[in-house]
């Protein structure tokens, strides 16, 4: 994690401190930033808490070289959508200067925290990473009864998997950070523009090259249905085995039958499975279809401990996890040819 400069800032309003003290009566122990380093009473500089890893990572890049410190609320090793924190999360958010979230209907716990702050007139700034971004309709296979989905009026929230939509969220985050620290506007906007042009556009081009090189336009996922934006952006059919928005180990018999047909019709040898999801659906696919192995994908919803140690963010995960797997499952490369040395052995049917 990049260290940022810290400077003194205005003390938080006593109203916020009082509410935070009340929330603190609940159990604590929530993880701080992705490295595991939480705030301490002596820390200075405005603090932004983020409800989701991808936007935490965008924000820390944009904030580099400013007094702003960004913290990821989702503990290491957990998926940012399926995670359900205890009520102490409210204290972390209230004590921060800004709360970076994904918009309503995606993380019910974040929605509840925002409502609590509104009810109690808390002055924590809200930064909506999804503001003004066009969303795709939910795929027909998705379970619309899942908690939170109805609030999105039939829209798929996983927009950040499309690099061009991700750039729009970076703009939203940058605007929020500028509002938080106007004196740092030049640095914040320069960081954002450089990140979008030198990193996000490169990711987009790299993905495009992978899908353009493929003879097959179908990817079978043992993972949950989070990759529709990848399919739409690069004109490939994403076939999820788990047909809901959150990571889950539940597989319906008809979904297995459909996956068997897709794998047979497209001569698929390898499938993709979510890093932070149950392995049972993937193992079931391997046992009941022609597929030989599964390899990792992630919607950038969380981080593993070894990724934290390597300081991986959105870009590093794209290049080291998702791109090699798409190369393999599309048949562009063998597992031994994809990724850095030893990648195929490490990630083949990973535990």
Describe this protein with a few key phrases.
Rossmann fold, Zinc transport system substrate-binding protein, 4-stranded parallel beta sheet, Bact_metal-bind_prot9, globular, ZnuA-like, transport, metal ion binding, 2 domains
Protein architecture, described:
The chain is of the alpha/beta class. The chain folds into 2 domains: 14-184, 3-Layer(aba) Sandwich (Rossmann fold); 200-347, Nitrogenase molybdenum iron protein domain (Rossmann fold). Helices cover 40% and strands 11% of the residues. It contains 12 helices and 8 strands. The chain has helices spanning 14-23, 53-63, 89-94, 108-119, 163-180, 185-213, 228-234, 253-265, 280-288, 305-309, 314-329, 343-347; strands at 47-50, 69-72, 98-101, 125-128, 218-224, 237-242, 270-274, 293-297. The chain has a 4-stranded parallel beta sheet. β3, α4 (108-119) and β4 (125-128) form a beta-alpha-beta unit. α2 (53-63) packs across α5. The chain is globular. It starts with 13 loop residues before the first helix and ends with a helix. This is Zinc transport system substrate-binding protein. Belongs to the bacterial solute-binding protein 9 family.
Compose a concise summary of this entry.
This protein has 351 residues and is an alpha/beta fold. Helix content is 40%, strand content 11%. The protein folds into 2 domains: 14-184, Rossmann fold, CATH 3.40.50.1980; 200-347, Rossmann fold (3-Layer(aba) Sandwich).
- The order of strands across the largest sheet is 2-1-3-4
- In the CATH hierarchy, the architecture of the largest domain is 3-Layer(aba) Sandwich
**CA-atom Rg in angstroms:** 20 Å
Strand content: 5-15%
SSE string, helices as H and strands as E: HEHEHEHEHHEHEHEHEHHH
**Main sheet characteristics:** 4 strands, parallel
Number of domains: 2
Termini, distance in Å? Answer: 26 Å
Name the average pLDDT: 82
Query: How many H/I helices?
Result: 12
Protein name: Zinc transport system substrate-binding protein
Keywords: Signal, Transport
Organism: Halolamina pelagica
Pfam family, one: ZnuA
